[in-house]
Design a protein that fits this description.
mainly alpha, flat
Length: 89
């Protein structure tokens, strides 16, 4: 993730409500997965591992933000856990 993108996301996070924070986390997942793909293409293993670690961190945060008062949260929980397991190194 570029320095400019990090600054943009930081600014958005400071001004976001709960729903917007979830949206930003999804955007971060996509950015980190892109970083991982680029590192993999360059065969840069440390950068790849770091990008995957950050992606998993985003999914962990998404898991912790679920409101289990709603049935849909269980579906999202299973999806997020699947993604975390798939990203295991």
């Amino acid at each position: 993730m570029t320095k400019e993108k990090k600054q943009e996301l930081t600014l958005r996070i400071t001004q976001a409500n709960k729903t917007e924070l979830v949206e930003i986390l999804y955007e971060m997942v996509l950015c980190y997965l892109d970083d991982a793909a680029q590192a993999h293409a360059k065969e840069d293993r440390p950068a790849f591992r770091e990008a995957i670690r950050k992606t998993r961190g985003c999914f962990t945060e998404l898991l912790s933000s679920l409101n289990y008062e709603y049935e849909l949260a269980n579906c999202f929980s299973q999806l997020y856990l699947f993604c975390v397991k798939e990203l295991a190194l």
